[in-house]
Design goal:
heterodimer; A: 320 residues; mainly alpha; ABC transporter involved in vitamin B12 uptake, BtuC; two-stranded antiparallel sheet; 68% helix; globular; B: 364 residues; 16 helices; 78% helix
């Protein structure tokens, strides 16, 4: 195996892991930019992964083949969105503590997903392995580029989608009236309210977008990495996505960069197993790596990043 | 009569109660949706809980770690911190106790206390790390302690699996007899339920929690920082040091929870695929108890009881035990969104107060 081949491999594993983190991280951006902390991204990802696995399985049983994962992807999006509504109603309409509700979303989603899986699949704690999931698609031409072309341009459809979503998110946030208003609501809700922008409406949209995107993130993992849903399908990626939001300073491009960084930390774990030298290092240290790097990065050179001004505060017009 | 009404009108008491009922209803709805019989399931739960002296003893065993993690999380909440890392601190406490229990050979009156202290310190220092990162580097304690939870899991597994391992098994060598804190005579009289001194220490912990926060100068500072860090800073308090102190104390509580699982219950530590989640349940316990000493104790009893009884549901009514997570999640949801609960209660409250008025009117 030559060096460039292995680097290409690292890149392609990195892209697989990063895709889910980018989706979810972008979700976090929309929610937090509107002023709502979303600790529940992990739970929303669980909802997405569960929905994707179950609906893909149903579609396959219904006779679909390569179209089935697309049904699953859509189901993941919808389920994430539905669960995030719970967050929105509690924190925006009823002004509940955002962090606590996020924790609740995590507990509820994990409990519900396993409970429903066991109910649907006769006591088994996981869905059957899906026969049809996403397969890497090579972009003709680009993937033939010598050296690194194969690593970068032979990726899952979800990876291509996420690249589009990153660009779209950036444009929406910084180049449209909608984005300006969303940011205004998160930065200074009372001013936004004064000029006639509905704080409630924009925060609902922000949280629901986070649900849809985190749902896509979870679905991505089920449909590209694990090929089923089990209790450990989502194990901490939602929290790493939150770290990516902070590391990326609430900017879609920054968050994508941070997510790729964390994706690489996860990929290193799998990638290193390919080599002889890694067998001398205890497995546990590879498992620790993504979390350790996240911690070091947050503590290190990044410095204090400025969160949206009104992040975490329920908006109460009476206190204006 | 009037005082009774006052007590019941206090939403601080009413909201958790209504939340518990709504939570149980949510669980029942989920069971109906899954095609199970909720009545049978809840009956099986209660039966499991009070079925025999053994079950009562084991339920107390299940409640004990939740008291520890509950006061750990509540303590941090009181000082304005969200210690979501109690889970990792719990694991570090377990590991500290196992290291001392397995590697050292000492007389019992030194060995057991030493194992407890070391485990507590492990938990405290692990939490203080998150406190330091917040105080010195401005890292949100929620993120850092979540990362520390995972690191604690793998670090514990590494220590147990490499240095303390029993040959050919995925667990540590047994902790020496001299470090164990089980209560033999009580266990024997309760059908060999695993009773231990940790339960008593958990109750003392509840008192300590109260005394530190409400009866000491340091506790006053901790609460002041929790209520308004800017005001506390202006009053000359060292906010950064307070953050680290608070996390340390919180972590000691969580760590002790782990310590007694090793020294009182199992006597060895396994290599775990995932943590037991006592730390996360501690969040639920603290929230339900409104971060008050008595409330946390009652919250731990409720959640420990539900979790232990859930085993009965899967045997007795064939319901997946995860249903209890749904119940617990819903309960915290309703406690957190008390606005929502009050919204549900409004019609009842209004009717009652109207009734009161009309009755008063007729008397005149």
């Amino acid at each position: 195996m030559n060096a460039l081949d292995t680097i290409g491999q690292l890149i392609s594993i990195t892209l697989v892991f990063s895709t889910a983190l980018i989706f979810t991280g972008l979700g976090g951006v929309f929610s937090e930019r509107s002023g709502v902390v979303n600790i529940g991204l992990e739970g929303l990802m669980i909802a997405g992964a569960f929905g994707a696995a179950v609906f893909t399985d149903q579609a396959i049983q219904g006779g679909m083949k390569h179209g089935a994962p697309w049904i699953g992807l859509l189901a993941g999006l919808v389920l994430g969105l539905v669960v995030s509504l719970l967050h929105a109603v509690a924190t925006i309409t009823f002004k509940a503590d955002q962090t606590i509700v996020g924790v609740v979303i995590n507990i509820l989603a994990a409990g519900l997903a396993i409970y429903l899986t066991k109910s649907l699949y006769e006591g088994s704690g996981q869905t059957p392995t899906l026969e049809y999931v996403f397969n890497p698609v090579a972009i003709p031409g680009l993937s033939d580029i010598p050296l690194l072309g194969k690593g970068i341009f032979t990726a899952y459809p979800t990876t291509y989608i996420v690249i589009g979503v990153v660009i779209l998110s950036y444009i929406v946030l910084y180049r449209t009236t909608f984005g300006l208003r969303l940011r205004a609501v998160g930065e200074h809700p009372s001013s936004a309210d004064t000029v006639g922008i509905s704080v409630t409406k924009y925060r609902y949209i922000g949280v629901m977008l986070s649900g849809a995107l985190a749902g896509l993130g979870g679905a991505t993992i089920a449909l590209t990495t694990t090929s089923n849903f089990a209790h450990n399908t989502i194990s901490g990626q939602g929290f790493i996505a939150i770290a990516a939001v902070i590391f990326g300073k609430w900017n879609p491009l920054g968050v994508a960069g941070a997510a790729i960084f964390f994706g690489m930390a996860q990929a290193l774990r799998n990638w290193a197993q390919l080599f002889e030298w890694s067998h001398h290092i205890p497995n546990e240290f590879f498992y620790m790596l993504p979390y350790l790097l996240t911690l070091l990065v947050l503590a290190g050179a990044v410095g204090r990043s400025a969160a949206p001004g009104a992040l975490g505060e329920p908006y109460d017009p009476a206190k204006r | 009569m009037n005082t009774m009404r006052k007590i019941f009108d206090k939403s601080s008491f009413l909201v958790p109660l209504v939340a518990i009922i709504l939570g149980l209803i949510c669980g029942a709805l989920a069971m109906l949706a899954g095609g199970y019989d909720p009545w049978m399931a809840y009956t099986a739960l209660v039966k499991k809980l009070f079925g025999s002296p053994y079950d009562i003893g084991e339920a107390i065993r299940a409640i004990t770690p939740l008291i520890f993690t509950g006061i750990a999380v509540a303590f941090a909440f009181r000082t304005g911190l969200f210690n979501i890392g109690a889970d990792g601190q719990f694991l570090m406490g377990m590991t500290g106790a196992t290291i001392v229990g397995v590697t050292l050979d000492l007389p019992w009156y030194i060995h057991a206390p030493l194992a407890i202290i070391v485990g507590g310190l492990f938990g405290g220092l692990w939490a203080a790390l998150a406190g330091y990162l917040k105080a010195a580097r401005g890292v949100n304690e929620v993120i850092s302690s979540i990362m520390l939870n995972w690191i604690a899991l793998f670090l514990s597994n590494y220590i147990v699996g490499t240095y303390l391992v029993m040959e050919g098994q995925q667990k540590s060598k047994p902790v020496h007899e001299s470090a164990l804190v089980s209560i033999k005579w009580l266990s024997e009289s309760m059908g060999n339920a695993r009773m231990h001194w940790g339960t008593l220490i958990a109750l003392i912990g509840v008192v300590v929690f109260y005394v530190i926060l409400w009866r000491t100068k340091k506790g006053y500072e901790l609460r002041a920082v929790g209520l308004n860090p800017n005001a506390a800073l202006y009053a000359g308090m060292n906010v950064n040091r307070t953050i680290i102190t608070s996390m340390f104390i919180s972590g000691v509580f969580a760590g002790l929870g782990g310590v007694f699982e090793i020294l009182g219950v199992f006597g060895y530590q396994t290599v775990m695929a995932a943590s037991w989640g006592y730390g996360f349940d501690g969040i639920a316990v603290a929230l339900l108890g409104g971060n008050t000493p008595i409330g946390v104790f009652l919250g731990a009893v409720l959640f420990g009881g539900l979790s232990y009884g859930s085993a009965g549901m899967s045997f007795g009514a064939n319901v997946p035990p995860e249903i209890v997570r749904i119940v617990i999640g819903s309960i915290i949801f309703f406690v957190a969104s008390h606005g929502l609960v009050k919204f549900f209660l409004k019609p009842f409250m209004a009717r009652r107060s109207n009734k009161g008025k009309s009755e008063g009117g007729s008397a005149l």
